[in-house]
Amino acid sequence: MEYNNLSKLVKKVLKTDQSGNTTMPSRREMTSKIFAFIMLIPGITSIVMTVTSEGGESIFFAISASFFLSISILLFGRKSRLEFNGTEKQLNLKTALWGYFQKSKIVVPFDTLSFELSSIGAQGPYQIKFVDQLYEFKQYTDAKMFISFLYTKYNTTAVETISDWPNKTPIRFAQSELYNSPQVTHDSQKANSNSHLEDEDFNSEDLVFIEIWDRKSLIKLSLPFFVFTAIAGLVKYGVL
Asked: Can you tell me where the transmembrane regions are (predicted)?
């Protein structure tokens, strides 16, 4: 399957670099972006409080603003992308900070790399798991197109647990799926009942989700915001 035949949604996830290798954002990069946006909230709040406060309070909020915004800027510049290197036949993790401190490490060779396709419900959404990554597509066609492209280009393995859950069944791709753009032929309910996983209609505007953390991690993430908000309130009313 050629890259130009991929749907717009899949192209938003899969990118090709100058060397012809395929890259995609890792869980670590998406986590950094989320942290960066969250740090903007107390940072902007501190700027507002710096302008409206006086004396020691203004200095405290100025320091807080510098702290949060500095972290946000660093996190926005943090890159952590997965690279499918066709020459070395391996999956690499490439990291950098605003174009500097570039590093690359081997994650897994292609001969041991496997994609697993599963469905959360009877009609999706559909999850793709490989190494420590988890991508979620709303439509089955996008999920299978994602796997088909990487399977064809890098000679990896692919299994699914939809037709005979929880057993893993090798995915069989039709010739049209491997070398051409997949045709819309079947609805998702029929696709889930067949072992060969036939395509269904898809909407290229659907979102793709990358699992980053669980609920417990999200609670831990929100704690600093509430702590600093409480400290700001204590300072504001003269308690500290």
From this structure: 34-52, 58-77, 221-239
